[in-house]
Structure formats: structure tokens, C-alpha cells
Amino acid sequence: MEISRRRVLQGMGVGAVSTIGMLGWAERPAHYGPAETVGTATTIHLDRNENPYGPPDSAVRAMQESLTTQNLYPDGSEDLRKKIAEYHKVAAEQVVLGCGSTEVLRMAADAFLAPGKTLVLAVPTCPILASFARAKGIELFEVPLTRDYAHDLAAMLARCDNSAGLIYICNPNNPTGTLTPRSDLEDFLHKLPANIPVLIDEAYHHYVIPSPSYSSFLDQKISDKRTIVTRTFSKIYGLAGVRLGYAVAPASVAKQISEFSLPFGENAAGIAAAMAALDDSEHVRRAAQQNLNDRQSFFNSADVRYVRVVDSQANFALLKLDHPIDEVIAHFRSNRVFVGPRFPQLDGFLRVSIGNAEENKAFWRVWDMLPHKPVHGMSKDGHHA
To answer: Tell me, which fold does domain 6-55+281-368 have in CATH?
Structure first.
């Protein structure tokens, strides 16, 4: 869905509610503020989908307390597995840890993608698993998203013959930030041959505005023997730097994936931080609310410029360009703002991470430095014709 001028009026309503929700956030600890003062000497990263407000205080304290034992190999992985299992109300044997969810995706590729097998996935989507598959010489069946930027599950199902080794679904999808409805996913799983594992990447789950059409496969479970759900501590928890993620799957599937884990693959500081972060539900609530506020403000800034934006449910947005993407990325980098990267079949669009208020202002300042074409063909309500 693309935003229209109506979104400005809608955003005013959201802003009024958000202001109330932000009263507590204004009293947040100092590390929740901008990490740097935005200026000509500052490099701003809006290309990595990071949490600009950092981790919770409890996680920072836990990492600090762990520093005296960094000479030792980590031994808290089992404790973290148990805590994640308790958090999601599953057995510890169902949890797989990794060095970020990136590492979990690599383990899944090693576990299920062998010569003669294929990877079925959308395009565009998060490219990490595809890159691991290509490195193994695995054939990819890439299925374009629908016009609404959802997964085309019918087309993906048609690709799932005996050669399919793994199916990858990122929901919300990266780089579009869009959702595939829960009912469609359940119908897809019901029709899918029982021997094909499905990996559902929920890295951006916490940023989704609650609605009847969406629910996590961890929060609202189904009885399915081959569904793998991945999460990360890099996004809502603000712990991208310590590299920790996990998967929850049936015990037999989790064991198959774990066989390809690295010895001591998780670091001790990350384990300590994750243990603390899981207990800090207030941080998750505030970070999600702040992202919603900043995202709506970003949409409004795009709208007044008549810039087309795909409606996002994540901590990034996809903008329609009126210049070649390489030129745009180079322009922003010359002004010390990193955006991108490029995605297949999206050369006319740019993915931009939602930063804090000052970072977003810097983005639009640099955007306005480009010589944009006059807008033609606008309908009365602001939609592009």
C-alpha cells in the first residue's frame, strides 16, 4: 500500500496518541537518546535496520557485569535456551541459538539444502539465506511478491515439488516491511507436502501494529512438525552488536539444525544481555511505540513531498525514487548518510531504516538536495494516478 495525503491527517491522530505514550519515554535513561549529535561530521547509518535507541538498561548492566569473565569461554548458552523456552512456553530442546539469526539461517541451509535440493523464497526478500544457498551451489526458485507486496503463496506452492529442501518466508518482509496474512500462511502450510520444512523469519515481529490479520507463529502456535521460526536480539532489543539470535522448532528439527552450530558460537556478554532483555517487557513496549512514532513522522514527511512509500510494519520504509538508485545512494553517502542496499527487482525503490528524529530530519535534508522532478498526475485525494 502506498501512502497518500490522507496519511498526514491520519498521522495527526496517531501523533496525538503517541504524545501521551511518549511522556514516559521522555524520562528514559540517557542512552535512549541519539548516540551522536547529527551534523556535518557525523555518519548516519540508515542502511542496517538497527534500533537507534539502544538496548535496555538491564542488558547494559548485565554486559558490564560479565566483563570480568571474558577470559573464559561462555557457559550460559543452556541457561539462555531454557529462558527463551520459558518465554515462548516450549521445551528447551526446541530452541536453537546462533550468532545472530544470520547464523541460524546458515545452520538451516546446511541442515536442509543439499545437492539436488532447492530453496523456495520470495523476491525481493532478505537475501541472507539465498546467499548461503548459492554458496552451496543450491538452485533457487524465486517467486515475485504480489502487487500488495505479500508472499505469493500459491505460486510458491506450485514450486514445491520433491526437490524442495526448504521454504523461506520473512514476515514482516524485508525490504518491503509488508505482511502476509496469518490465515494465508496457515492455508499454505496445510496444502504443503509434509516433508518440506518452512522457515518463518520474524526478525521484525515486535514492530507490527496488532491486527486480526497478523499473529506470530510463536505467540499463536499451530500443530506443525516442520515449521521453524527465527527471532533476533538485534532489532527491538537493540543488541545488534553482540550478535545473538535463535530459532524455535519441533525438537527433532531443532536437533537437526543444531548439528551445524559453531562450538561456543554465542558470546558471554551477549548471553548476559539477552537474559536481561527478555525480562524487560517495558523496553520492548517503549521501543515499539517510539518506532511507530518515528515511522509515522517519516511517512508524513514523505507524503508532503509526494514521495510514494510502501506501507511498512517494520523499522524501515521503501521509497519510490525519481533518480537512479546508484546515484541516490552515492549522493547520500557523499553527505554522510548511509542508505540502501540495492535489492533485486527494486532498482526504482530505496529502503531506508527508520532512525531517531534527528537522523530522519537529516535524511530528508539530504533528500531535498536532489533535483526532484515536478509531481504530475496526482488525484484529488493525493494518490498517484
So the answer is: Aspartate Aminotransferase, domain 1 (3.90.1150)
Rounded to two decimals, the pTM is 0.87
Quote the distance between the C-alpha of residue 311 and its chain's center: 14
- The arrangement of secondary structure in 57-278, i.e. its CATH architecture, is 3-Layer(aba) Sandwich (3.40)
Query: How would DSSP label each residue in 2-25?
Result: B--THHHHHHHHHHHHHHHHTTTG
Rounded alpha-carbon distances, angstroms, from residue 376 to 132, 299, 323, 371, 382: 43, 20, 16, 15, 11
pLDDT tens, per residue, the chain with 385 residues: 444 433 443 444 443 333 333 333 433 333 333 434 444 458 999 999 999 999 999 999 999 999 999 999 988 899 999 999 999 999 999 999 999 999 999 999 999 999 999 999 999 999 999 999 999 999 999 999 999 999 999 999 999 999 999 999 999 999 999 999 999 999 999 999 989 999 999 999 999 999 999 999 999 988 888 899 999 999 999 999 999 999 999 999 999 999 999 988 899 999 999 999 999 999 999 999 999 999 999 999 999 999 999 999 999 999 999 999 999 999 999 999 999 999 988 989 999 999 999 999 999 999 999 998 776 544 333 333 3
Domain ranges of the chain: 6-55+281-368, 57-278
Classified as helix, coil or strand, 168 is strand
Would the CA dihedral through 260, 266, 271, 274 be positive or negative? negative
